[in-house]
Amino acid sequence: MPIIYDEKNKIFNLQTPNTSYVIGIYENKLPIHIHYGKRINKTYNIDDMVDFGFRYYRGEGFSVRSVDFDDAISLTALPLEFPTYGSGDYRTPVFHAQYEDGSTISKLYYEGYNIYDGKPKIDGLPATYVESDSEAQTLELYLKDELTGVKVVIRYTAYNDRDVITRSHTIINDGNSVVKLKNVMSGCIHLPDMDYDLVQFSGQWARERHIEKSPLSHGKQSVESLRGASSHIFNPFVCLASKNATEDCGDVYGMNLVYSGNFESGVYVDTHNRTRLYTGINPFDFEWKLDKGECFNTPECVMVYSDSGFSKMSHTYHKLISNRLCRGKYRDIERPVLLNNWEATYFNFDEEKIVNIAKKAAEAGVELLVLDDGWFGERNDDHTSLGDWFVNKEKLPNGISGLAEKINKLGLKFGLWFEPEMISEVSKLYDEHPDWCLHVEGRSRSLGRNQLILDYSRDDVCDYIIETLSDIFANANIEYIKWDMNRNMSEIGSAILPADRQRETAHRYMLGLYRVLETLKARFPHILMEGCSGGGGRFDMGMFYYFDQFWTSDDTDAVERQFIQAGTSYGYPTNVMGAHVSAVPNHQVHRTTDIDTRARVAYSGQFGYELDLGLLSSEEFESVKEQIKFYKKYSSVFHKGDMYRIKSPFEDNMTVWEFVSEDKNTVIVEIFVIKGAPSSPKFVIKLKGLEENCMYRDELTGREYSGEVLMNIGLRRIGNRDYTSEIMILKKI
Ligand code: DGJ
């Protein structure tokens, strides 16, 4: 029973194993947020639970009082569960709409609730799920605006066995006239003080998700995307962390959005130091026309609270994403070790070259050969052919099916690259359908990587893509696809939407994209699907409902990757992070690292190669064979175990990751030196998650250590050589 309703006090207590999310109904009208944090076992009268200041700040200086309440409170003093604009709450709202008379005021008051077992799907949108109704309970709160007829369902789910609370909204136009939604966020919580850092994951192409912390200050601090994708620049995932928070202690609130388009995640701190944390579709340039009888669903917001630091929060997100967001055949099984030809050949390949690369890969133990960009149309560089998804016979005279057969004969699976959301101006598709891209009539069409974006807000465009891809998938033995997306949106408009729906284009695009992905996933359940957006430019929870994994970054350098994968690991599990060994000097930063260090970084993801193994020395080639054997033996420890970030590249000159297997019997420690220094000081590496009274044997050296020594005294290492690494496999005795 994770959701308890105290009828007398009108209090809902959503409980997970260690946390509670408590909502009160203020004066029987207004849902307010009482608590999110450590589990509360009983409920009390609102006044005995809340000291948010509304007793003291009933009428905040220069704030208006709502006469809809007996005690005429200032709404801006209340921790509102569903803050709307217009009646005296001056903080960032989660709801803002315009009505037929031009007004923008909403008074949404409580009408009732429902509690039931399970977790419903969100129509047309990705979301976390349950496999049986006994895994979670859902609370729906019903609100209504008497004047406009607008109704709102706030839907929360509390999981029984994981510290996760999810939330989404449905807005229903039950009135008699059109409603224009201008802002409908997915959720907010309130904290009574501002003693937190905002932790966010910002970056750029090839420098994704670097961790950034900033102290809260009065006003608004947020990250957002207006690019039509969650983007390389900011990620929807944010945390509020108490000032003392470390990997193992302190309060950490994680909030993420299951959405891949424009978002805003942020905080508003008011003058009394109270904090509102929120996330949702970015309201900027968003509008949605809700005709009479229509409804609108928001994406899902996923919250995790940890009372003991970042590590516990990350573990909860890792397990949730791996087991209750990812779906399909590959969710529970280890995936093939792949070799992708992109950095080996770029556009310059033919069948013979690919088959030769595949032969060497097969010899090394690789299981899947992926043919990247350049196999279709006249695609010899990035100026042409996106949209022309027919094979280039000059490069591949036997077609895709012929190449797949040859690859299969070598004992490898075959995978293929696509960029199905794009269209090149130089393409047959563009000649036939110049209005199929996002554009605004009369305006020039800005280019990104020389390409335009197909208008996925249109059903006909989405249907065309579904059929085109289905045809290719059905006619060759394709067992993996890489779905790329290499530019962000501009001149966002659709040729077929009426003027009063143009501002819906970006969100309609996402709904179209999700429909395409859902249909293909259902039609071809055996295909392993990897997402990509110039690396990790759309690495978000929305994507993992469809994609088994995502290419983490176009930067394949082993040192850069430590930062990118460490930052990514705060919110996302290793088993969704595509990670490859590439050639040296590295193509992005020209750094040379040894092949084992490159592999060790890549083990902590979905492992693969991105180079021609035929160009390696025989020693390196032997190492590759060993790496694949090693990875296949231990991949489940990297993917299903608990990951501990023992040392962070953002804070130290060393990165240390530890993985403890699900059964706690195997422990893998990876130690990476970043910049070598002569007479380097010793690093103390204290392991975590072991059993104090057990002994552990190092598989490589045979040396035995006690759990309590490893955790409390630790290992000592020096860092005197650039970019070196070490791996330890400890087995519980
Ligand atoms: C960007 C991707 O991130 C790369 O891995 C590669 O697939 C190229 N696109 C191909 O154009």
Please outline the helices and strands.
Elements: E1 3-6, E2 11-15, E3 19-26, E4 30-38, H1 46-49, E5 95-98, E6 109-117, E7 136-144, E8 150-159, E9 164-173, E10 179-191, E11 196-202, E12 210-215, E13 219-224, E14 238-242, E15 252-258, E16 263-269, E17 275-281, E18 288-290, E19 295-297, E20 300-306, H2 309-324, E21 338-340, H3 342-345, H4 351-364, E22 368-371, H5 399-409, E23 413-418, E24 422-424, H6 428-432, E25 451-453, H7 459-474, E26 480-483, H8 505-523, E27 528-531, E28 549-551, H9 558-569, E29 577-582, H10 595-603, E30 606-610, H11 618-640, E31 642-647, E32 654-660, E33 666-673, E34 682-685, E35 695-698, E36 704-706, H12 707-712, E37 715-718, E38 725-732
Parallel strand pairs: 21-22, 21-30, 22-23, 23-26, 26-27, 27-28, 28-29, 29-30
Antiparallel strand pairs: 1-2, 2-3, 3-4, 5-10, 6-7, 7-8, 8-9, 9-19, 9-20, 10-17, 10-18, 11-12, 11-14, 13-16, 14-15, 15-20, 16-17, 24-25, 31-32, 32-33, 33-38, 34-37, 35-36, 35-38
Helix pairs in contact: 7-8, 9-10, 10-11
Residues 342, 372-373, 417, 484, 486, 532, 534-535, 551, 554 line the site of (2R,3S,4R,5S)-2-(hydroxymethyl)piperidine-3,4,5-triol.
